[in-house]
Design brief:
Elements: H1 2-13, H2 20-42, H3 47-56, H4 61-80, E1 102-104, E2 122-124, E3 142-144, E4 152-154, E5 158-159, E6 162-164, E7 172-174, E8 177-179, E9 182-184, E10 192-194, E11 197-199, E12 217-219, E13 222-224, E14 237-239, E15 242-244, H5 252-257, E16 266-267, H6 269-276, E17 287-288
Helix pairs in contact: 1-2, 2-3, 2-4
């Protein structure tokens, strides 16, 4: 009869054989059931009756197993996605799924994250130079105090992604729609943006001097106290865009903003009115919609 109990538990636990905590639960449960079965036999119950009472005594075991398995798998995923303080230079993460991962104080130079789903992942204080994020999903990711020099973001999914206090010299964003992204307190003078759409992006306190945004689209974007010397919005589309100049006791910030080019740009009436109120930029070649 011990074999019959074993066979019964095997049939129930089969879908979860590879989950360590479930395997441990199975071993403990088998020991308890065998002891219960022996007690019933000692009371004079026949084999079949003792077996039925023993099995019925464990109740809805399948629901318990499912809960244990789900918890175990969740914990296993947390372990697998914690890559902090590890040398992972030139690692291959292409196409992986690693939600809510942790890369803190890690060496990731030259690593390939192309087409990976990194939703909710945090990158902090790490060397991510020359990394490939082409086609990756960086939704709700935090990238703080990183060295991202020469990193590639081609058709990367950037939604509520937070870039903060990171080095992006030589980094290239191509064919990207940035939605509710924060690029704050960053020197972007040597960063390249090509064929991008900026929707709800926040550039507060960042230095964009000399950048070309020609022909690109800006919707609900904030350039608050950003350095915009010699920036070109030639042929760009701007809707509900905010410009707040850095504080200056002289006319320095106004003179710097005067170098911004809006020739051929298209903008809504509110953006146009706000810019016109600054009195310093040439809007003679702007189309108002």
């Amino acid at each position: 009869m011990n074999q019959k109990l074993t066979d019964y538990l095997n049939s129930v636990f089969t879908p979860y054989d590879r989950v360590k905590s479930v395997t441990e639960l199975k071993a403990d449960l088998l020991s308890d059931l065998q002891e219960r079965y022996r007690e019933l036999r000692a009371e004079g119950k026949d084999d079949e009756t003792a077996f039925k009472i023993t099995v019925d005594s464990i109740g809805d075991i399948e629901q318990t197993i499912l809960e244990v398995a789900n918890l175990s798998r969740s914990l296993e995923r947390q372990v697998v996605t914690n890559f902090s303080a590890i040398n992972l230079a030139e690692s291959d993460f292409a196409g992986v799924t690693a939600h809510n991962g942790q890369f803190k104080s890690s060496s990731l130079r030259g690593s390939d994250f192309s087409n990976a789903d990194l939703t909710g992942t945090s990158f902090t204080s790490s060397d991510v130079r020359e990394a490939n994020f082409d086609g990756a999903n960086l939704t709700d990711c935090s990238l703080s105090t990183l060295d991202l020099r020469n990193a590639s973001f081609n058709k990367t999914l950037l939604v509520r992604t937070n870039f903060s206090s990171s080095g992006l010299d030589g980094a290239k964003f191509t064919g990207v729609k940035l939605t509710d992204v924060k690029l704050t307190k960053i020197d972007l003078r040597k960063t390249t943006f090509e064929n991008c759409i900026f929707d709800g992006v926040d550039f507060t306190y960042s230095d964009l001097s000399g950048l070309s945004f020609e022909g690109q689209t800006f919707i609900g974007v904030k350039f608050n106290k950003s350095a915009l010397n010699d920036v070109s919005f030639r042929g760009a589309t701007l809707k509900n865009v905010s410009f707040r100049l850095p504080f200056s006791v002289t006319n320095k910030s106004y003179l710097a903003f005067k170098t911004v080019c809006f020739d051929g740009a298209t903008m809504d009436k509110l953006t146009y009115a706000a810019l016109k109120g600054l009195w310093v930029v040439d809007l003679s070649k702007v189309t108002v919609i």
